[in-house]
């Protein structure tokens, strides 16, 4: 079963614009991770944010976490055509609560950045 | 250093056949995970190992699926009597421990005809 849900399912923007993707989940978590996937193959880890953190940055990426709303957002600033990919959030807890080890993924947001 | 590697990258087999998928984790990572991803979906958990033992195999869909990690490093996912519904990308990941980032391999695309 999947825990997180990304919104929107698809996002299309021009190069230079900012892209914001959201993730909502249902149960308490220890951490939340964002991944990027190109062409349906391996996932690239972007950022891990722990439940006691509210915001993290990595280059052009900014992730926020609101545990009271059970939601997270991923912001990509000054997007590039190379950012075109699917983006997934993953939590360490499913609908039955925290489960060590496994990650629960949403269906992802397909981001397309036009040159 | 080297990332997670998986072999083969593609596997085409016939219904009813047996397949083995291999995963080489990042050196020193004690935790190893297997996920399965169908088209248009996010990865779904299958099993994870802490060292040599399967700490959680509750994601395996049925007893046709089995995985081993005999020396606490390389892992093999084994699927018996394959069915067309087993067609998917099988992803392996490793991490230095629990509640850490998981680093994924490129996946094996399994097609059952």
Describe the protein's architecture and organization:
The complex is a heterodimer of chains A (115) and B (113). Chain A is mainly beta and 115 residues long. Helices cover 0% and strands 56% of the residues of chain A. The mean pLDDT of chain A is 89. Chain B has a single domain (5-107), classed as Sandwich (Immunoglobulin-like). Chain B is built from no helices and eleven strands. In chain B, strands 2, 4, 5, 6, 9, 10 and 11 form a seven-stranded mixed beta sheet that branches. In chain B, strands 1-3-8-7 form a four-stranded antiparallel beta sheet, with no helix packed on it. The radius of gyration of chain B is 13 Å and the shape is globular. Chain B starts with a strand and ends with a strand. Chain A binds chain B through residues 2, 30-31, 33, 35, 40-45, 48, 88, 90, 92, 99-108, and chain B through 4, 31, 33, 35, 37, 39-45, 48, 50, 55-56, 59, 89, 91, 93, 98-107, 109.
Please provide the count of β strands of chain B.
Answer: 11
Number of domains of chain A: 1
What's the Cα radius of gyration of chain B? 13 Å
The CATH architecture of chain B can be given as Sandwich
Secondary-structure element pattern of chain B, one letter each:
EEEEEEEEEEE
Treating each run of at least 4 consecutive H or I residues as one helix, how many helices of chain A? 0
User: What is the helix tally of chain B?
Assistant: 0
- Annotated CATH homologous superfamily of chain A: Immunoglobulins
Which class of chain B in CATH terms? Mainly Beta
Oligomeric state of this protein:
heterodimer
Low-confidence stretches of chain A: none
- Average pLDDT rating of chain B: 93
Q: pLDDT average of chain A, as an integer?
A: 89
Tell me, briefly, the overall form of chain B: globular
Classification by helices and strands of chain B: mainly beta
Chain pair with largest interface: A-B, 25 and 31 residues
> How many structural domains in the coordinates of chain B?
1
The proportion of strand residues of chain B reads: over 45%
In helices, the fraction of residues of chain B equals under 10%
């Amino acid at each position: 079963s999947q825990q997180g849900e990304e919104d929107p399912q698809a996002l299309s923007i021009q190069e230079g614009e900012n892209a914001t993707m959201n993730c909502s989940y249902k149960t308490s978590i220890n951490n939340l991770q964002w991944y990027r996937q190109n062409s349906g193959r391996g996932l690239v880890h972007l950022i891990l944010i722990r439940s006691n953190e509210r915001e993290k940055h990595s280059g052009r990426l900014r992730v926020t976490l609101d545990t009271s709303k059970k939601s997270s957002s991923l912001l990509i600033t000054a997007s590039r055509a190379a950012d075109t990919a699917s983006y997934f959030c993953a939590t360490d807890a499913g609908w039955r609560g925290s489960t060590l080890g496994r990650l629960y993924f949403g269906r992802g947001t397909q981001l397309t950045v036009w040159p | 250093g080297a990332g997670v590697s998986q072999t083969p990258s593609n596997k085409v087999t016939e219904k009813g056949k047996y397949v083995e998928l291999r995963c080489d984790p990042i050196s020193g990572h004690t935790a190893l995970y297997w996920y399965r991803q169908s088209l248009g979906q996010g990865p779904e958990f299958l099993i994870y190992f802490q060292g040599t033992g399967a700490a959680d195999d509750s994601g395996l869909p049925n007893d046709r699926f089995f995985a081993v990690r005999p020396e606490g490093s390389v892992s093999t996912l084994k699927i018996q009597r394959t069915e067309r519904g087993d067609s998917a990308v099988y992803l392996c990941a490793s991490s230095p421990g629990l509640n850490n980032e998981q680093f994924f391999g490129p996946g094996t695309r399994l097609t059952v005809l």
